[in-house]
Each structure stands twice: as structure tokens, then as C-alpha cells.
Amino acid sequence: MNIIRIKTTALLLAAFAAFATAQAGTIHVAPGGTGAGASWSAPLGDIQAAVDAAVTNDTILLAGGTFAVSNAIVVNKNVFIRGGYDPATGLPGATPTVVTRAGDATAGLVIVTGVSGGELRDVTLSGGVLYPDADHAYGAGIQISGSTGFVLVGCTISGNKAQSVVNKTARGGGVAIVNASSASLTDCSILDNEAENVGKSGNDACGAGLYVAAGCSVVLTNGVIARNNVVFGQNAQRGAGVYTEGRKAPCRSSTALSTTTSVAAPRTMSRAMASAPTTAGRP
Question: N or C end of the chain: which has fewer CB within 10 A?
């Protein structure tokens, strides 16, 4: 009986190891790739296709170069996306991975939704524009929504713009954390992003660099937030660098929140970081 148990246990462990191996793989992606992503010699050419093909805990390796997207990349599973790889060596190289918008696309760059982990590492999100026809504009660079424990490491989020239409708001030109989400940003730079009140009627603009909605949380470590701008916040204009609703954003080590410039009509707000009051007053 003991021998049978030992053999059964061994078989179960072997089956589990095989299952785990099958469930956690690596997908390779390079600009212009036409393969299935199994190796650098046959990479996929589309990040969204890689996410769609991935299963929980897969790693998606992105070659250095530029990926132009017409629609936001939707990350809806726990995967680890890592940029800056050199296909010739299979190691991180000198060329950064940049995700930007294609043409005049206005859908933002990345949406993380419904995950309970995962990572975006060493990727630049730049040049995204979020200008929805009839909705709020939250996170032109990256929006993290309905997710917990998502991590950004070594990323640069720069030159993105969230623009609002009439009776809507523009928040988080660079990063927006919304819908009961938690995230951490380590060694990240959030630079030169904008939240712009285009409609100018019944709306506001705030948190051009980073916006953290009520009920959400973020931890910032060793990063820089600088030169972000809130433009024409007619009803309210707050926190050009960081705007949090109801709580502060913990900043660890050498995170820098620099003073930024905001343009308003008729009033001006030039603080780098602000928080909205709760029902019990300011946090």
C-alpha cells in the first residue's frame, strides 16, 4: 500500500509540474514580426495578439523598437510584460521598447483591467491621446481599472494627453488608477503629460501625471514626476503632477514630485500634488 501511495504521489507531482510548465510560457514580440511568438526567430508582431494568446503567469518579451497602436492594448490577465530586449542576444539591449499611437488614434495606449497581479517593465508609453466621444478621459498612457497588485517597473510614461468633452472630466494624462484598483510604480518616470479640459463646460481636468480615484491606492518608489500640465480646468483644476481622491499616495525613497505649470481660465493651480477632501475633511 505504501508503494502504491508513493507511486501515486510521484505521478501527481509529475502531472502538476507538466501542467505548471504548460501554463507559464514565454511569448516573443518584435515590431514587424510575422511568426507565432515561440522564439526570437519567429516573433509575433503585435502586443495585443501576444496578450490574447497568453495564459496566466506567462511572460511576454518585447524587442526594442516602436509599436504604434490604433486601439489601446487591453491587459486582462496576470501576465508579465517586459521590454527592451535584443532579439540577437535574447537579453535586454540598448534600444528601448516604445508604445505610441498610430496616426490620429484617440483611444489611449494601455488598459489594465480585471487582473490580480502582473507587471509592465522597461516599457515607454509615449504620445498617447485619449479623447472619448461621450465618456470621461482617464489614463491616456495607461489606465488601471478594477485590478489589484499590478506593478510598473522602470517604465517611462511621457507626452500623453487626456482630453475631456462637455460635461466629462480629464484625469490622468499619464496614469489613471480607477475602479477599486491598487498598483505600485517603481523606478518610473511620469513626464510631460497633460490633462486638458477641451469641452470647458460642466467638467474639470486634474492629475495630469497621475490620477488616483477614490477607493484606489498606489505606492510610488524611486521615481520622478515632473513637467505635467493641467490645461483649462474651468470648474476645477488640481494636482498637475499627482491628484488623489480621499487619500495620499505613499512615496518611498527618492521619488520626486516636482512643481508643474497649470493654465486655467479664470484661475490657476500650480501645486504638483493635491488630494480631494473626503466627507470628513481633508485626509
Answer: N
